Amino acid sequence: MSLQLNLFEGPAPGSQPSAAPCPRPELVRRPGLRLRFWPGWLSEAEAFAARVRGEVPWQQESITLWGRTHPLPRLTCWMGDPGCAYTYSGVRNRIEPWTPAVQRLKDRVEAEIGVRFNSLLLNRYRNGRDRLHWHADDEPELDPWAPIASLSLGSSRSFRLRPRQCRAGDLAPLAFELGMGDLLVMDPPTQAHWQHQVPRRLRIEDERINLTFRVVRQG
Ligand SMILES: O=C(O)CCC(=O)C(=O)O
């Protein structure tokens, strides 16, 4: 991973041995935003990437805008406990049961963060042409007081955040490079005040998988 702006309140990026996982997260704070970042958090990330790629039932979803239907520029899968239905960008997701490798990742993320997640959106970016547009994870089904934990596997991709209210003199956007095994937690109230995206990167040929663990309100 590398951070493109000098944003962290913790040690400067690159000031720690690169191979050793970070025991404590680096913190990024801005008005309305709180992020915790563990570069290289996941050991055996390559092996997990292969397992997840193979065992997840990937879907090619479509979105209808202004009467025209377009395939989403990535593959997705919604996983979760029974009853955790979720709709985003007009796509009502079918819930798949936890697969063995994903369950192991969920257990590890939960142990690190101390939160029990009941659902997960997986995004598979087949190459740099696949992308994710600006949005916030603020759908009514989601618990707004729960963090969202994002785990990256595979090729490095840019991850950007910007304030939702963009006015002259406002806060500067943030940009991360999220690489293999990096864990990024977006704490509340980040989704209420900031949006994020994964932009297109035409030179990237390799695949990336991202897992965002969430809490859906039930009952
Ligand atoms: O791929 C990523 O890093 C971000 C995924 C994301 O923003 C989402 O699933 O809402």
Q: Trace the largest sheet across and list its strands.
A: 2-3-15-12-17-10-6-9
Number of strands: 17
Order of helices and strands: EEEHEEEEEEHEEEEEEHEE
Uncertain regions spanning at least 5 consecutive residues? 1-19
Radius of gyration: 17 Å
Bound molecules: 2-oxoglutaric acid
- Shape summary: globular
Main beta sheet strand tally, sense and closure: 8 strands, mixed
Structural class, please? Answer: mainly beta
CATH superfamily: Alpha-ketoglutarate-dependent dioxygenase AlkB-like
Instruction: Please report the first level of CATH classification, the CATH class.
Output: Mainly Beta
> What share of the residues does DSSP label as strand, in percent?
35-45%
Annotated CATH topology? Jelly Rolls
Q: Could you report the average pLDDT, rounded to the nearest whole number?
A: 88
Q: What share of the residues lie within helices?
A: 10-25%
Query: What is the overall number of helices?
Result: 3
Total discrete domains: 1
